[in-house]
Design a protein that fits this description.
The protein is an all-alpha fold and 137 residues long. It has one domain. The protein contains five helices and no strands. The longest helix has 41 residues. The model has no long low-confidence stretch (mean pLDDT 90).
Length: 137
């Protein structure tokens, strides 16, 4: 995967992820559906990382310490960090689902009080967490 292919893959995964966050924010996607979004993003980043590792391992030892090898290593590390963030986000998603369930239970008695245009607090907070994911450049 060339540098431009790597950047293209990261940009594509980021755009797809951000589009899904926006869909979640406006109600076109629910928390259950967002679990697949996280899984797809994780898979795309893992594939990019694996390709970087293969490229690095196929280089002669003396080139692995050269700028190209160092760049590959930096990108591998960036992918690993992003994969950790996505794992953390998956845990936050589970918390958001629980919080949403609790909110819905609390609002059952007062169903007329909720504005249909406004997402529940659990969804809004989760969207803020998802927006904070640090995508590599």
């Amino acid at each position: 995967m060339t540098s431009s292919a790597y950047k293209g893959a990261m940009m594509s995964a980021c755009e797809t992820f951000q589009d899904a966050v926006n869909d979640l924010r406006v109600g076109d996607l629910d928390l259950e559906g967002f679990e697949d979004v996280i899984g797809d993003a994780y898979s795309a980043v893992e594939e990019a990382k694996d390709q970087r590792e293969e490229s690095l391992q196929s280089m002669p030892d003396q080139l692995q310490d050269a700028p190209t090898g160092q760049l590959l290593q930096e990108r591998i590390e960036a992918c690993e960090e992003l994969m950790n963030e996505l794992d953390d986000l998956k845990e936050k998603l589970e918390e958001a689902k629980t919080n949403l369930s609790n909110e819905e239970t609390e609002n059952d008695d007062d169903s007329d009080a909720k504005d249909d245009a406004e997402q529940p607090e659990a969804v809004r907070e989760f969207c803020d967490e998802a927006d904070a994911v640090n995508w590599p450049e």
